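The pair is listed for reference:
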Amino acid sequence: MLIEYVPKAKALGLVDKCKEVGMSQIPYVNGGGSNLPHSIDNGFNFECKLDGTSKSKFVILESKSLIMQAGIEIAYEKPLPLFKIDNNYNENYNLIKRLSDEFYGQSQLNRLEITGERAVEFFCNGLPKLNRVKIAGEPVIECIGESGIVSVSALEWINYGNASSVFYLTKGNISGHDFIIFKAGSREFW
């Protein structure tokens, strides 16, 4: 729905939909937007509770009354050492990836996959980096983010696109928490 809705809808229409389904609106804080291709007029954040997650946020960026970008950021519970938490992390990621592959296709023209150290560098783009190490063969970069020092590792990033929209799907680990981020954008802005 997100992929098809974003290129066609007004931002306030999606804001109203979020309220209709019971999402709680929280203040939008502009994170700098250094990777955005166009300035935003408004931003909207909504909290949404998903099973097995510690925090989920739905973000809408508006420009010229249109949706420039909208998507979900999911942070999963950090498992305790002796307990396994079934948080559906991999299942959720694989479902979103499968649906994205079906919608956009898997050709190199429509899909770009970045993994490992290159993906971690891409994710930390523009943030001051403190350390660059490998743990169990996985690249880890410590960088200074919005909430202090964060360690980013085990990252996978897939970009999709067609004539009307762009979409990206990211999974990884930040400071011990697994996360999934997926966002769709209108091709008009990207």
About this structure: The chain has a mean pLDDT of 75. The helical segments are 2-5, 11-20, 89-104, 116-123.
